Amino acid sequence: MKRLSRLRRHRAAGPLLLVFGLLTIGTTFQVASAVTNTTTLNADRSAQIEEGKQLFLKGCSSCHGLNAEGGVVAPSLIGVGAASVDFQVGTGRMPMADMSQQAMRKNVVYTPEEVHALAVYVSSLAPGPEIPGDELLNYERDGSIAEGGELFRTNCAMCHNFAGQGGALTQGKWAPSVMGVEAKHIYEALITGPQSMPVFSDKTLTPEEKLSIIKWIKHAETEPQLGGVALGRVGPVTEGLLVWTLGIGMLIGVAVWLAMKAR
């Protein structure tokens, strides 16, 4: 007891007790803040899930089922992930009136907040690919145009055309143009494989290679037409048809002119 009394009377005891008190208060505040933030995040997520569920029941359940289990005309959404919903709804492909037709890009029906709520609700049903964040989509820093062009020609050009303008597939389907598409939606298409498109997992194309493809697409969107008229950049068929039509037309014109001169 005497030793404890001597320690209390030591001139360093006051500052030490002050530091200890401050550390205790700071630690308590940090723990309380973390608990509060976690509770707030959970509450926000629960609210988004509920909002997304109500939107789903109104606009999607007639085809995909009340519990997203799928139906006769539409597939199950369990396990497709938030990225698939963000791509399909965020590009206006869904909702659609006729599920027997190929979904095409059109005006978006929902607001960005409603699209996010739908994605959160579907992702809550089962794990799946998540929506890529801005920190993942820094293609200007992490991508390579040269590598992206090579990867695009190897993996994408057979369907989307060597210039990304889209092309015809079998059974009346087509691969859409990739020009003018947001980087986020291109990345989501690569990891979810919408409709006839295959899924490019990180084992097939690494995240850096995906960013290189996006960087090449964005570069191609602004590339000048140094060779003259682009003619849609859909390949030699259009160019050959134009040359053939003009050539035949000129030959017919020359033949008519010669026939008239011979009279």
Automatic annotation (TrEMBL):
The keyword Iron applies. It holds the Pfam family Cytochrome_CBB3. Residues 47-126, 143-221 form the Cytochrome c domain. One of its GO terms (molecular function) is heme binding. It is an enzyme of class 7 (translocase). GO terms for cellular component: plasma membrane. Its EC number is 7.1.1.8. It catalyses: a quinol + 2 Fe(III)-[cytochrome c](out) = a quinone + 2 Fe(II)-[cytochrome c](out) + 2 H(+)(out). It is a multi-pass membrane protein. The chain crosses the membrane at residues 241-260. InterPro entries: bc1_cytC-su, Cyt_c-like_dom, Cyt_c-like_dom_sf, Cytochrome_c_Oxidase_Subunit. This is Cytochrome bc1 complex cytochrome c subunit. Its main location: membrane. It is found in: Cell membrane. Keywords: Cell membrane, Heme, Iron, Membrane, Metal-binding, Repeat, Translocase, Transmembrane, Transmembrane helix, Transport.
